[in-house]
Design goal:
Number of domains: 1
Order of helices and strands: EHEEHEHHH
Number of strands: 4
Protein name: Multimeric flavodoxin WrbA
Largest sheet: 4 strands, mixed
Number of helices: 5
InterPro entries: Flavoprotein-like_sf
Distance between the termini: 25 Å
Shape: globular
CATH class: Alpha Beta
Structural class: alpha/beta
Oligomer: single chain
Strand content: 5-15%
């Protein structure tokens, strides 16, 4: 992403996300080699994941819903991430500064909103959401907004997958 404040919005017409790193963390309690439903959505194991989180721009936590709530593995991961929150990056900022987070859940659809609310609140707390939102809003304002590439319902409905094998019915 250009750092100049006078950003040309044409630079965003053909979206390029080169250089971004994402880590997906599966918090299912199912033992390997059995494939969980969550594993069907992502392919990263929980063990030795800290170096991946440090290097990632995007952290996505996923897991099953058990008894109407997040799994104990999901809660444990959130607690471990919180415990590492006093570490610093190479710029002397807190280690999660400038990162964004997301959540993926499988299981009881009635509890997905509750589970997502809990994890997303935790992520916004440890990723310095307020500062990230202000910086991102400034960047988007200077760039003329978010590019339409990959974000057009009419293109999805017409079958465009933006290079992905995606089913527009399951966005």
């Amino acid at each position: 992403m250009p750092t100049d404040t006078a950003v040309n919005s044409a630079a965003f017409d053909a979206a390029s996300y080169d250089g971004l790193k994402a880590v997906y963390i599966n918090c299912t309690p199912k033992k390997s080699p059995e494939i969980s439903h969550t594993q069907g959505l992502m392919d990263t194991r929980l063990d030795e994941v800290w170096p991946l989180i440090e290097a990632a721009n995007i952290v996505v936590i996923g897991g099953p819903i058990w008894l109407g709530d997040n799994s104990s593995m999901t809660r444990m991961l959130i607690e471990r991430l919180y415990a590492m929150g006093d570490e610093f990056n190479e710029n002397g900022q807190y280690v999660y500064y400038g990162k964004v987070g997301g959540a993926i859940f499988t299981g009881n659809e009635d509890a997905v909103k509750h589970s997502a609310m809990s994890v997303l609140y935790s992520l916004q707390h440890i990723t310095f959401m307020s500062w990230n939102l202000m910086h991102m809003a400034s960047i988007l304002g200077n760039a003329g907004g978010i590019p339409a590439y990959g974000n057009s319902r009419s293109d999805w409905n017409a079958g465009e997958g933006f290079g992905l094998d995606a089913n527009p019915e399951y966005r």
